Amino acid sequence: MCSGNFAKCLGITLIPLAIIAILCNILLFFPGGVPAGKSTDITNEAFYLGGLVGSGLLMIFPALVFLGLKNNDCCGCCGNESCGKRFAMFTSIIFAAVGLVGAGYSFIVSAVAINRGPKCFLSDGNVTYPFSEGDYLSNKTMWSECEKPNGIVTWHLTLFSMLLIVGLVQVVLCAFQVINGLFGAICGDCCGCCAES
Ligand SMILES: *[C@@H]1O[C@H](CO)[C@@H](O)[C@H](O)[C@H]1NC(C)=O
């Protein structure tokens, strides 16, 4: 198994996912696609920053570390050709664990937000959460309880669903890298990076 190459693939996949998550979280601050009048008009879960921090910024570090693994100098440590590489794989486990926690956090926040539904303006002008326990998911007639902003339920559902999926994929990828990193740390990277010397 070529654990360094595998990690590089993970790194390349994680970057676009992190960017999608950051964009989704930013869009959630514009309910229905328009700037909110007051910050209290915005669904609370947007401020938990699951997409911006958990699946976004926290994921950039592991992604960069994974990307760099392939190029780590493996010939300089304790006279052991593979020990530098092994150390790199070992540190990648820690970063993968950070990514796992961040993505898991975003996943949980998104699940809670989907279950709770969006904050919106009712016909009486109050801003509140009209739904509970995901009841609106199976009954589209209820969506009209949200009078403003236009299309807020679709907006909320689309963006948090994307964050849910991104978080799940990131959790799986980082879990893979924890296992891959363990293999790499124990067995060394079997790509033979020093073979040419
Ligand atoms: C859907 O919601 C509407 C409005 O709350 C309600 O009148 C209707 O009975 C619900 N339909 C179902 C199938 O639960």
Automatic annotation (TrEMBL):
Q: What is the lineage of its organism?
A: Eukaryota, Metazoa, Chordata, Craniata, Vertebrata
Subcellular localization, as worded in the UniProt entry: Membrane
The record, for InterPro entries, names: L6_membrane
A GO CC annotation recorded here is:
membrane
Q: Answer yes or no on keyword Membrane.
A: yes
The transmembrane residues are 12-34, 46-67, 87-114, 152-176
Give the family this protein belongs to, as stated in its UniProt record.
Belongs to the L6 tetraspanin family.
So which domain of life are we looking at? Eukaryota
Q: Tell me which Pfam families the record gives.
A: L6_membrane (PF05805)
Q: Membrane topology for this entry?
A: Multi-pass membrane protein
- Please state the gene responsible for encoding this protein: tm4sf4
* The keyword GTP-binding is assigned to this record: no
Task: Please give the name of this protein.
Answer: Transmembrane 4 L6 family member 4
Q: Which UniProt keywords apply?
A: Membrane, Transmembrane, Transmembrane helix
